[in-house]
Amino acid sequence: MLYFSKLKLVSIYFIILFLSFFSAINFLDLNNNLLKNKQINLGLDLQGGTYLLLEVDSSPLVQQKLQNKLLSLRKILKNKKIKYENLKIKNDIINFKILENQIKIFEDFFLNKDGKFNPYFSQYRSYELSHEIDNNLVSIKYSKYGIVEIKNSALNDSLEIVRRRIDEVGTNEPTIIRRGNDRILIELPGLSDPNRIKKLLGKTANLTFRIVSDQPDDFGSEVLYFEDGVTKLNVNKRVVMSGDNLDNAIPSFNNQNNETVVSFSLDRVGAKRFARITTNSVGKRLAIILDNKIVSAPQIREPIVGGNGQISGNFTFQSATDLAVLLRSGALPAPLNIIEERTVGPDLGEDSINAGIISLIIGFLLVIIYMIFKYKFFGIIADISLIVNLILLLGVLSIFEATLTLPGIAGIILTVGMAVDANVLIFERIKEEMRSEKSNVYAFDIGYKKAQSAIIDANITTLISAIILFFLGSGPVKGFAITLGVGILTTLFSAYFLARHLTSIFVMKRKDKEIVI
Amino acid sequence: MKTNIEFTNFYRKLNILSLILIILSIFVLLFKGLNLGVDFKGGTLIEIRTNNSSIKISEIRQSFIKMNLGDVTVKKFGKEKDFLVKIETIKSDDPSFIKSIKDKLSSDTGSEVNFRRVENVGPKVSNELLKAGLLAITLSLAAMLFYIWIRFEWQFSLGAIIAIIHDVLITMGIFSILSYEINLSIVAAILTIVGYSMNDTVVIFDRIRENLKKYTKSSISIISNTSTNETLSRTLITSVTTLLALFSIYFFGGEILKGFSFAMILGVLVGTYSSIFVATPILNYTKVSSKTILKDDDEKL
């Protein structure tokens, strides 16, 4: 065990140098971008920032889609001359009654794999809708995969819009990723007050323009409230135009009445339609509605033909800017709920880094002194291997661009405490062997050999814990699992190769003299 | 350091002590329960730093009572101006929830307050985190059981797993008695304790296996005693270095790591004790002999 071939030595020291290089990168102020990317990232708990987990609430979307299905179903049934009764939606299920002899005609088009009404997903081997017929009563609902598809497309669309909204606000290197079937994970480093982003993400931003109804009890109208929740208006249900036709929106200032407004421009289709509507409805009031709340309802004084308009509504510059951002980025297909939020202020992050570094240094010094006290010269060897171990650990973390969190720093400190274990096991074993063996070289050789199985078994158990923690832990805890796991590997390397080599140099030199551990 | 302690003499008494501690722990865990943090119970956690050191904890408490947010706990958190607030109700539908708390608190205390950390966990997520935590602990126990069974014999596996359960139960029991909060990092600590306790146990087991092969005529009680003595100085030195590191985190690593390092310190102490006085005696009780080991070798041939 004390002999090393040249090739082995070269590889051992090459690996150490290689990792030391990457470890050193973290302490240099670099201009090279390629290398700068390899610096260890600080987790949100250390650099400060906001973590948000959003969930797409797809149930309103399912209801809305089912409503559309109902409308097209009615058309198809009429076209096919199928007689139906009581066609309505209850608890997200379309119900209706048909005649016994027409069931076949219904099923023919309903189960037509190339039909438009009920698409067939060959990847799932399932239709979008499933149906049951009981006693001439047909009930139709979204199949499991139909729901999956709705969620999927809602999530993809939401992801895009969330990305646009966050980009508009202009935060530093945001991370926006999809999580599972209906979630979006957002990390915003450096953002200590997520209030504005949360507000922006909390709005569906469904913009509609509708005419205010004259008659109070008009059948085709509904009552909607203003932002204040008190003032209300009777508004026509028919949507004249929606936010989809918006080309651009910017906050601006109306000089005539000294008011902050949002100016918008419409696309060609929107401009044409807007011109027609405003021409026909001069004198009426046009309600501008955002997420079912009236923003404002100005009177149409003259036809607006240019495709440009203004939204007023007691805006501050900030709220006008936010509305413009929402309108530019488009409406979310479904509401988003924030189901988890973690924010760390930059000063706490800095405190955590400082506390982490101080406790690392103190823990490190205590262990180093204790080892020298216990093992004298061999303590120094163990300490050298401990220092190199830390350098290697940093190097590996840098190469994999790992994220360092506060629990991650705890993992490093814990590694310092546990890393000497391998050397302790070996030294204690050698001590025992030296009691019965005359030859130093032989005692050291046997010591290393016999300690091997205990060291491997002992470290694998901790490694198992670290791996499980890595896969099941979340956020900062994952950082702990990484440093603990990598720490175990570098510990084995530095004890088994570096410390062993240093020991062998010493033992070979003092072959025939007395050695005290 | 060559020791010659008759560990076997203590087995009976200490095993009874361990049993009592385990029963006590189960009792407290069942009747007092654990103080689950927002990670596992849902709710809002806010770390506050005030601008003015004359602001008393009672003022902050008063302000929160006025806000009518249901169950709110306020406690000091490390330094003089720092407080930790836990709100049990969650208002995830209102994005300005945190801001409104901040505004009200500022006006009530008449000074600027800094929200250094905000954690807001909805019921769905906390439920998932709790499940994942329990799954992680169960999985790691199963993985350890399996690993020891592969590397040793079932008697060793049994000893190791009883020792780990002993460590985890007693650590959790102490957390329950002290009403210390259980959060994500405590789960990480428990998993590390599982790994560490195992590590200690395995080193002794490894030596027992070796000695069983060497002294085929000796009884298990002599062998486990010799093996424990032979590995004792390593067991103690490693515990000391690990504890040095942990105490350093506990005293200098900041408030956030206090719970974690406290759990780890308990775990290392209990884990070291259990590898000597819980795991090893089980080999005696299950009458492990050199045949147990050698039979296995024959099969492998």
Your description of this structure?
The complex is a heterodimer of chains A (517) and B (301). Chain A has 517 residues and is α+β, with helices and mostly antiparallel strands. Chain A has three domains: 6-46 and 345-509, Multidrug efflux transporter AcrB transmembrane domain (Multidrug efflux transporter AcrB transmembrane fold), CATH 1.20.1640.10; 59-147; 204-310, Gyrase A, domain 2 (2-Layer Sandwich), CATH 3.30.1360.200. Chain A has 13 helices and 21 strands. Chain A has helices spanning 6-25, 33-36, 44-47, 59-79, 103-110, 144-169, 195-202, 268-280, 317-329, 346-399, 406-436, 440-472, 476-509, and strands at 41-42, 49-56, 84-90, 93-98, 120-121, 126-127, 129-134, 137-142, 175-179, 183-189, 207-211, 221-226, 232-236, 241-242, 246-254, 259-266, 286-290, 293-296, 308-315, 336-344, 403-404. In chain A, strands 13-12-18-17-11-14 form a six-stranded mixed sheet. In chain A, helix 11 packs parallel to helix 13 (476-509). The longest helix of chain A has 54 residues, at 346-399. Chain B is an alpha+beta fold and 301 residues long. Chain B folds into two domains: 8-37 and 125-300, Multidrug efflux transporter AcrB transmembrane fold; 43-121, Alpha-Beta Plaits. Helices cover 69% and strands 12% of the residues of chain B. Chain B contains ten helices and six strands; from the N terminus they run H-E-H-E-H-E-E-H-E-H-H-E-H-H-H-H. Chain B has helices spanning 8-31, 38-41, 57-67, 97-109, 123-151, 154-178, 184-214, 220-252, 258-285, 290-300; strands spanning 35-36, 43-50, 72-77, 79-87, 113-121, 181-182. In chain B, the strands form two sheets. Chain B has a four-stranded antiparallel sheet. In chain B, strands 1-6 form a two-stranded parallel sheet. In chain B, a hairpin with a 1-residue loop joins strand 3 and strand 4 (79-87). Strand 20 (336-344) of chain A pairs antiparallel with strand 5 of chain B.
